[in-house]
Design goal:
By secondary structure, the chain is of the alpha/beta class. The chain has helices at residues 61-76, 84-94, 99-117, 121-124, 145-157, 171-185, 201-210, 228-238, 251-260, 270-273, 276-288, 302-314, 329-332, 363-368, and strands spanning 3-14, 21-23, 26-28, 30-40, 45-50, 133-135, 138-140, 162-166, 190-194, 216-220, 242-244, 265-268, 292-295, 343-345, 348-350. It folds into two domains: 3-118 and 362-368, 2-Layer Sandwich (Enolase-like, domain 1); 124-350, TIM Barrel (Alpha-Beta Barrel). The strands form four sheets. It has a seven-stranded parallel beta sheet with strand order 7-8-9-10-11-12-13. A three-stranded antiparallel beta sheet has the order 1-4-5. A three-stranded antiparallel beta sheet has the order 6-15-14, with no helix packed on it. The two termini are 33 Å apart. The relative contact order is 0.15.
């Protein structure tokens, strides 16, 4: 099963109006992601997805395409699709970073392995350690007060038991928004916030003290990534439970989080970490130090969402029961790229047990939404 061909397809799909995101990183109205098709010498085919967002990871759709076409693909042609460690070694040898581009190739190779073995990917990863139906929180954007109140009520009616509110835009309005949501959802629904690194240390401490009576379950990435000492200070001075997201792309980052004792949980997902294998390495390291992991999201389509689900159900330290994450991406978009879309019903997302990642890409739909500029 040696890699013979890698095809890259840039696709543009808008989000549903009611689910368009506003955060400290700006607005997300349209997703421009890269689908990656890998073909082996013996005719097996697998699909991956680079869920790129330039304001978040620095990667763009056409940039990922250029990197894969010109750098990563030449490096991995001839590599066995079943030797993920060697695949990663070759990609890391020719390009640093570019986690989402690398993850797309890696997840396509897992897809190939699953199809070849007639098994779902989670079986290749050691088997399911939790049910195939996963409960998600809902990420509510940094909306104006009226919209925040309306959406929060709608989400509770849909069955969500954890609501995450985006902050990090304007501190007074951030605090007001969180208070409005807590008032709307009542005392029994779990409430978390995510600043996407939009606050500094002093602002974080001040805002979290103001929000003490809102009983926040988690505070996600309150300050910019890289300042582990500052993150430890926020955690120590407020007593907030910190979820590190942008602070952890690789094992080095995970070691720094552990060394500085600055988080209670780490947000992982294959796209951000460069692939399923690397995500599992971080989850295993975190487990050794008593740190829980949860799943993050870049509003993925079905292929990357499936990769996330296989990772979740096969990795014991993905403690989504304690800290629900986000695996709702396909439901944010107006169009699905899958012939048999992943089933999403309110907060519940269900993984199929079909071979590979379990997603058959709808080529006709993809071609309708393809773009080249």
């Amino acid at each position: 099963m040696r890699i013979k061909l890698i095809e890259t397809i840039p696709v543009r799909i808008p989000l549903k109006p009611e689910r368009r995101m506003i955060s400290a990183l700006g607005k997300h109205d349209v997703s421009e992601f890269l689908l990656v098709r890998v073909v082996t010498t013996d005719g097996h085919e697998g699909w991956g997805e680079a869920t790129v967002t330039p304001r978040w990871s620095g990667e763009t759709c056409l940039g990922a395409k250029a990197l894969i076409d010109g750098v990563l693909a030449p490096a991995v042609i001839g590599c066995s699709a079943s030797h993920i460690v060697e695949l990663d070694r070759r990609m890391d040898a020719v390009a640093v970073g570019n986690w989402f581009a690398k993850s797309a190739i890696e997840m396509a190779c897992w897809d190939i392995q699953g199809h070849a073995a007639g098994k779902p990917v989670y079986e290749l990863l050691g088997g399911a350690c939790r049910p195939l139906t996963v409960r998600s929180r809902f990420s509510l954007g940094a909306y104006d007060p009226e919209r925040a109140r309306r959406r929060a009520g709608e989400l509770v009616a849909l069955g969500f038991t954890t609501i995450k509110v985006k902050v990090g835009v304007d501190p007074p309005r951030d605090v007001e928004r969180v208070r409005i949501v807590r008032e709307t959802i009542g005392p029994d629904i779990a409430l978390t916030i995510d600043a996407n690194g939009g606050w500094d240390v002093e602002t974080s401490i001040r805002c979290l003290r103001e929000l003490e009576d809102c009983r926040l379950t988690l505070v996600e990435q309150p300050i910019p990534p890289g300042d582990y000492t500052g993150l430890a200070r926020v955690r120590g001075e407020t007593g907030a439970k910190i979820l590190a997201d942008e602070s952890c792309f690789d094992l080095v980052h995970a070691h720094e989080l552990i060394r500085h004792d600055c988080c209670d949980a780490i947000s992982l997902y294959p796209g951000k970490n460069g692939g399923i294998r690397k995500s599992r390495e971080i989850a295993d390291l975190a487990a050794q130090h008593g740190i829980a992991c949860s799943i993050g999201s870049n509003l993925e389509w079905d292929v990357a969402t499936a990769a996330m689900l296989h990772f979740i159900v096969s990795t014991p330290n993905m403690q989504i029961e304690r800290f629900p994450g986000d695996v709702l991406g396909p439901d944010y978009h107006e169009v699905t790229i899958a012939k048999q879309p992943i089933v999403i019903e309110g907060p519940l997302t269900t993984l199929t047990s079909r071979p590979g990642l379990g997603v058959e890409v709808d080529r006709e739909c993809v071609e309708r939404h393809r773009f080249d500029r």
